[in-house]
Amino acid sequence: MAEPSGMDAFAHLGSEVREALSDQGFSTPTEPQRKAIPPLAAGKNALVLAPTGTGKTETAMLPVFDAIVDDRDAPGDQPREGISALYITPLRALNRDMMDRLEWWGDRLDVEVAVRHGDTTQYERSKQADDPPDVLITTPESLQAILTGSKMRLALEDVAHVVIDEVHELASAKRGAQLTVGLERLRRVAGSFQRVGLSATVGSPDEVGRFLVGCGRRDPEREGDRAFETVEVAAGTRTDVRVLDPEITDRDSRLAGELAIDETTASHVRTIREIVGQNESTLIFVNTRQTAEALGSRFKTLAERERTDGTDDDTTDTADDETVDPTEIEVHHGSLSKDVRIDVEDRFKTGELDGLVCTSSMELGIDVGRVDHVVQYGSPREVARLLQRVGRAGHRRDLVSEGTVVTQGGDDTLEAMAITRRAGAELVEPANIHHGSLDTVANQVVGLVMDDGEIHAREAYETVTNAYPFRDLSEPRFQEVVRELDGNRLLWLDEERDTLEKSGGTWQYFYANLSMIPDESTYEVYDMSSRRGIGTLDERFVVNFAGPGETFIQRGEMWRITAVDEEEERVEVTPIEDPAGEVPSWIGQEIPVPRPVAEEVGRLRGEVAAALAAGSTPEAVANDLAGRYPADTDTVTTAIESVTDHVEAGHPVPTDERIVIEGSARTVAVNATFGHEVNETLARLLAALVGQRAGSSVGMDVDPYRIEFEVPRGVDPGTFREVLETTDPDRLEAYLELALKNSDALKFTLAQVAAKFGSVKRYREGRGKFGGDRLLAALEGTPVHDEALREVFHADLAVEETAGILAEIQSGDGSSAGTRLATARERTPLGTAGRSAGSEFLVPENADADVIETIKERIRNDRVILACLHCTDWKHTTKVRRVRDQPECPECGSTRIAALNPWDDETVAAVRATEKDDEQERRTKRAHRAASLVQTHGKRAVIAMAARGVGPHNAARIINKLREDEEEFYRDVLRQEREYARTQSFWD
Fold first, then answer.
1. pLDDT, tens only, 465-475
2. Global confidence as pTM
């Protein structure tokens, strides 16, 4: 059949909707509308994939509005009195946008549209129950709630259409798995209904389509009301993205001094501001909230300087009478308060702001008006993320979206080049669906009991397994979950009648667990000067850092903590001007680099090495790559410097087909370009088996291109090579289960899963250990433990792919196809290129004597500044092992000696200063706390404060434990280092 074109697509709609289209100025359909409206108007299920800004919402909703109008006006039929359509989005902010967007259509067509989410008032909820709207915009969690209400459940009987926006975001989350069962519960109420999924792009359309429509035990997949069509409009061909690693200029040197940052970062700040200045509205995406805060703070500092002194950093001279309009850039992310987020969204939409630094909070299509350009700061890590983000630009009917990825050389640039090329070729990562998540089953079984009060176990099982993620759930496994729920008194299992019924704990559990998002405590940040909330902080940050007098950055501004209210979970702050504030830490934000992207970086390395070996120059190689990838020659030249140095040093180059193992002293690095998940899997395997052979613990640090290990004496690269060559790939999963048996990752996940099973009270991380070991012992062998293990494997590991790599290593055929091993004689340029300054290893929780000895030896050889705070004249830098048991000043004989890190000359200067600002006062207080510890506890205090991330406050806690045994003292030091290692990226 010929594809509809022009007005033909709108011809599938009724006269009222066509007239409304004319009123709105819609004369020609967009490409998604041309392709999707005909099947949707025919009532078919569909997955619609199209770039942001191409009218996907109208594509889905125009046929829905038309069906509602047609049903209402049909002669002789009883019109629907309940809800005709649900529009489900993953974010409340999207609900607000959709309401703004759909309200006009509703008013024009006499169709009532309403919103329902967690912030909806009780009055509005009652109104919706008594007089249901025709279209209800809601979230997956609110759907859970309305399915159980008697009046709303009656209103849901009329549902004929369900539209799920940003379906890719839900497909890869437990929220999405929960939603699929929720839709099957809705099907029990409303019967069959049309399902429409909307997304900018997905890498596995067929699987996401099945996720959307369900599989159906009684209905064969892709038949009957489970059939669906995929309508796809290529996103990659509509993007124009360049990769840029800025050169450092004289202006950057000046800027670096003004902002107290390095010249490379200064060049990034300057380049991004130039791009913002060249466009009317720019989104600046970053990968973590802490980066957003740090970058936003620097932009604000520059804007404030422009306002106060009338100079523009992007010009060399400004006339005295010339007024400079500062570049206004704000920050937007999920830990800022709702009011702050809405404020910056509105200011950006109206043009008051030139740019917005944002995280994934802006990925999902929140309406901020026209966006001319998108900057991605640092590699976006994934093709899907790049397309989703850059797709926000060019929001005007079929325009090309323009973007710039600003990178930092080396791996970051090569990775961005690979991702940008893959985006143009539409090589998008597949959805990572949670298949068979048992805590979701537990949650939804309780939901089914809430729906009916009593349900036959067979019917509950069939409802759950009609959802695509649970199609393979076995009856015995389902029965285990039900018995666990019965044991936890969340429902009552009547085994004689084989029914599931409400119990005393059903209601309370269900409404406390409407969401599958892990329940982690957050503290409100409350500005005492304006008497309003400005955002939130993660509990771990509060526990480990936040105390009265400490400073940090949020919303791009500096704040000093005045009080922490544990009971109210509130941090009270006042605004200050202080460039030394720490960036708040948020947990679990790192975006994993997929294997295909990392392998392309490996292939690029191999190409460069081969060309250089054949006599080509680095400049010629860079020119060649710049012709094939969207990056200029200078950017590529900088990116391949490490490869060039590596080849010139005569080392084997790690590529997608070669693992290179190298080492020196107590460090071994395995260079493997396989991405985060495979490298994490290899790391855990090697740490466990090498540690077992050595009879000692092995610390590890993982990135997409290398794994670094801290090893005991006697372990060298050969040990790691032997393990890779002899480990049975078929036993990999069993080895990993043993390696994870007592890990923090499993304990943390187990506590969250146990909460969703009702096995324990809600877990709140940060309030002690919560009996992690006891929880593991109590729940081993239960579906709770099995689900926690499954989730760790799902989130962090790639067992099947890693087993394949081990098999290739061991094939022994010597061919170039497959993975080979090589060993370098020393640490190499590529092997050390990925490690950031100051990063530390994640060492095991229960360190043995050998690890303690290693830590002890390292600290003894670290350098420390000793400074007298009595006469303030004497300062001396020495190794910790040379410090006396009770240090004293050789000039005045005082024992008031501060022990400081070797880079902390600024603190010494602050102590000596006669006039002090707030920052100098803070440094002086810190120095005096350090001196008091040394005066009281001597060398033991020096040792504690020489450790990584252990300041006077934490050193005092360690010393005050009064450990008599030296090993126990070092264990405490190690535990603190370990905590710092987890969060050190937030402190650098």
1. 999 999 999 99
2. 0.78
